[in-house]
Amino acid sequence: MATSDYGGNLGWDYATFFIFVIVSTLVPLWGRFFGRKEKTKAEYVFGMGTISVGAMMLSIARGTLGVRSLLGYPSELFYRGSAMWETLYGMVTAYPIVCFVFIPVYFNLGITSVYQYLDLRFNSRLVRCLASGTYIVRALLILGCTLYTPAVALNTVVGVPYWASLLLITVTTIAFNLLGGLKAAITADVIQGVTMILIMIAIVIQSMVNIWGIDEIVTIPAEKGRLTFFNFTGDLTVRVDTTSAWLGQLFMSLSIFGCQQSFVQRYLSMGSFREIQRTLMTNVPIIIILFTLVWIVGMGIFSVYVDCDPMAAGFISKIDEIAAFFVQDKFSYLPGFLGLFMGSLLNGALTLNVSNINAAATVTWEDFLAPLPCFKDTRDKKQLKMIRLIGAIYGVVVMGIGFAVGLLSGVIESSMLMTSATSGPLLGVFLLAMLVPAANWKGAASGMIISHIVTLWITFGGLTIDNQTPLLPTSVEGCTNETFAQSIARPSDSWLLSTITNAPPEVPFQNITATDSSSFQFPESIYAVSYMYYSLIGTFITMVIGTIVSYATSHPDDAYDQRLLHSAVHKLSRALPGKERCYVVNPKIKPKFETNLQGQCNAAFEEKP
Question: What number of other Cβ atoms are within 10 A of residue 43's Cβ?
């Protein structure tokens, strides 16, 4: 990591940093002190129904990309090329599927936790707890990546130890979580989202100024092999190509947008189904623009440093530090900009942590603690306090995960691996519930358990083999004494730059030779499959095993509420030949709006395991 001495500008940067963090934290909490406070669990979880469509759109868009994208994707393009850019296809494809498949089923059920749906559909606490447990683990792992992101920037620019940054963000997150609910998190999302967009535009403009042109931002990366699209290799072991980017991200995005509490929580806070549809579909062009802008930032940074790679020159030690280093280097003339950049990253990690910890805590309470005998008659206000307490505990857990992320190869690689490994079983059981009328709790539980075992086996097996993807070559031939700002210096060994771990820094650059996957034997050949396919594999296994077991264990008296199936699937199942299934109105469902749906038969809803 580089160190710097801005002289007078350093004071401006510190002032801007603290002012931005304080303002962006206090504004969302204004209503907590001077407005109407959340008095019930529903108000805390769903934002009291006072969240505007525009704010919700920006919050969903920023939650889709995450704060780690500003540091991760530019470094991905700089050192690995544009292959991961094509994950955009999967994100865009997922939105209409979520809008017209998942949301129609959820909207009128009157549920707080999305995993209540599985309990209603399968009448099984086992299936519900398997799904919610999967979500909680995934949420905490991803939040560890998010928490680590601003720590990289602070360590790169001013040498703040990783442990100090992680501790600061964790303490602030816990305080924010205790004081505000979903509404406060979304307000903070809007502030941080607008700020990040302006910062990205400024970086692109500064890149154009440095290379004295507009076309060069595209032509230079293209000439150096950074822009390669529509690469259909047909090789499942390639880290990422067009096929794995699209399919892998599609299944990950469906699991996140359609089955993740933090997103469904946002959808259900809106007043009507039409409003949800409009918000989601309008979000598609917004996501395309924002996602593309992040990669253009990477193209601009690469164009500036094409002949002098800061990592190869020894000024930074991790690939994720390249964007923060650029801001430190090229904006040294602009007092306060560096502080704004770091403050925005810190605030971004904070708000994402709050909203996701809020969701994970809600799921933990609803699915694991509330059913226990000792909590059965807990009043609403006490439930709210319990959710906040659980959120505080999760904040500490996430901090521990953040330390572990620093040992992996980049925030994008880490987050993709964690998301893909945990998405398949979760998505599979929801699709099984909505689209397979014959599915029962035995099939759903069997499918999830087997899928988890296989996916985790492949994931941990993949970490045991040497299947490294080489970084693209960079150059230091153009490095001179004037390449970087005079305030930039190589890292020192001062106590301020040390971290809590003793992990050695990354080697500035190595021309790693890619491993020949054809030389692998079983089971190494399975381990070599790209992590981008893990979500697809997990979904497929869950649905196939779940369907087979359900048919094998079906009972003539099996019944469920037809509202828990997708309407098109229900109509199709009624039209198919064979014995007509029995549909009932589940008394556990308390819809938001009154319906005239009557059951066609009677059945007892006995509690299953």
Answer: 19
